Give the backbone structure.
Amino acid sequence: MEQKFRYNYNKLVRDKIPEDIDRELGRKCKYRILNDTEYLKELNRKVIEEANEFIEENSIEELGDLMEVIKAIMKLKGYNMEEVEKAMETKKEKKGAFNNKIFLEYIDEEKRNLEEEKELNKDFRK
């Protein structure tokens, strides 16, 4: 009896990946189409995956992958580039951009600040 090896991915992939896999001799994949709720959840996971890959390589290819996921999120949410740029401009006017390379080390406060503590305790900051 011939032994088979299964490699479980359980992740969102680009549209042509299943076709490319199935085209190779001795390889067959199983996939399913996500509903919008699942799709958004997986796109959110994919942003983190692609951001980490960009951080590792800092290549234009990885930046392109990250942008592709962001574009997919925009499409799913119904956002267009003009709206995103307007939101960016509003935030920039209020808080500035990242041009001056400012690295905040700490803030001293006289009283406990629960909002500051909540911000510092977000999972992605750990």
In short: The CA atoms of residues 74 and 80 lie 7 Å apart. Residues 17-83 form one domain. DSSP finds five helices and no strands in the chain. The chain has a mean pLDDT of 94.
